[in-house]
Write a structure and sequence with these properties.
Elements: E1 2-7, E2 10-13, E3 18-26, E4 33-39, E5 46-52, E6 58-60, E7 68-73, E8 78-83, E9 92-99, E10 110-113, E11 117-122
Parallel strand pairs: 2-11
Antiparallel strand pairs: 1-3, 3-8, 4-5, 4-9, 5-6, 7-8, 9-10, 9-11
Length: 123
Amino acid sequence: QVQLVESGGGLVQAGDSLRLSCAASGRYFSYYAMGWFRQAPGKEREFVAAITWLLGNTYYADSVKDRFTISRDKAKNTVSLQMNSLKPEDTAVYYCAARSSGSVYESRNYNYWGQGTQVTVSS
């Protein structure tokens, strides 16, 4: 089992920055890749970014590339998502997730999910 707890969401203005964190615990989670997904009202959940725990390889959606940065802290067992130059279209509930195999881009491959944290960007 892997437990994931997100924090850091909030209300910001367009152009601002926000940092999300995901605290991970449980057995063997270090063998997983960690991802961030988001879901806006009336839309499907979409991939944002992912990082492999052991090697730190990173993956991004085109819509956030060059604005968002995913990182992990092995000592603290946390995964973070630094979000810069936020836009109103980034408004969504952001979820942290853990995956054991398969494409990092597909939510169906993620075995464990956090409860989500709301990010709202006003124009």
